[in-house]
Amino acid sequence: MPELPEVETTRQGIAPFLEQRPILAATIYNHSLRWPIPADLAEKLTGATATAVDRRAKYLLIRFPEGTLMVHLGMSGSLRIITDRSPRLTHDHVELDLGDDTLLRYNDPRRFGAWLWTDDPDHHPLIQHLGPEPLSEDFSGQRLYRQSRGKSTAIKSFIMDSRVVVGVGNIYANEALFMAGIDPRRAAGRVGQDRMNRLTGAIKEVLAAAILMGGTTLRDFVNSDGKPGYFTQSLNVYGRGGAPCRNCASSLKEIRLGQRTTVFCVNCQR
DNA sequence: AGTTTAACCTGGGTGC
DNA sequence: TGCACCCAGGTTAAAC
Asked: Distance (Å, rounded) from C-alpha A154 to C-alpha A144?
């Protein structure tokens, strides 16, 4: 489920339930995620009270006076707030008891996600080399242009590299490149400044719009489901291989690029 | 050093 | 039905 908009929507959804509210109990049903959940994590969380729920890239940073819990949803992870005593589902691997019949449950079928503890998130190996947040001023066309000079890697792979900019997953990489009129196969080093400016703007625009939509479609996710947080009808290329381009009506091309499905318009994207 | 590939997992869909 | 195979919203680490 999670690209950056879904992670941000999740953050906004769970924060009110976690902040300033002691965790009465933490239960880990399966330690086997991307990295093993530390054996002492349940003990650390029990009795602790989160002061803030932040996000860096696709990591949720749940801050405690004693340290920071890092949660990553991987490819298939989701967090949901349970208030109706509904039974645990298959692949519910972690549960936090927040009292008053309120539970936070982490579900992750593929177990590519992570639950880690750190005393210093800014210098954690998984975080310290990350690029700028896409919606921040730090992420600019000038920076993207400068950083891409001499790079032969495809522009789509380049913007999906978390050292360049975080939070651009496969769906929104396809969408942003369509919006900017850039062929995803083009070498990053051969995209000029003007088009890098357009690409940067497109990334910001598509992510910001998706966050707004995620907030809408996931409005009640805290009570129940984990439905996708984006409207498929708003996607111009992703999932539309072979369908007519909404701009010029020619058939959208679907290829594999860097092991990921890539859809674009050969006519509109150069 | 830069870039590409394989790997971590489960589940759903397709084709034989 | 069953089985083999391919694909999926991410990311790291190994291999070219």
From this structure: 14
For chain A, the average pLDDT equals 93
Q: Can A58 be counted among the known catalytic residues?
A: yes
The encoded tokens of residue A177 equal 């490149």
Can you tell me the distance from the alpha carbon of A205 to that of A215, in angstroms, rounded to the nearest whole number?
16
Predicted confidence (pLDDT) per residue in A123-140, tens digit: 999 999 999 999 999 999
Say how far A237 CA is from C2 C1', in Å. 36
> Residues A152-174: pLDDT tens digits?
999 999 999 999 999 999 999 99
- CATH superfamily of this structure's domain A4-123: MutM-like, N-terminal (3.20.190.10)
Is nucleic acid strand B under 7 Å from A152's C-beta? Answer: yes
The domain A141-264 is placed in CATH, from the list 1.10.8.50, 1.10.260.40, 1.10.10.10, 3.40.50.720, at 1.10.8.50
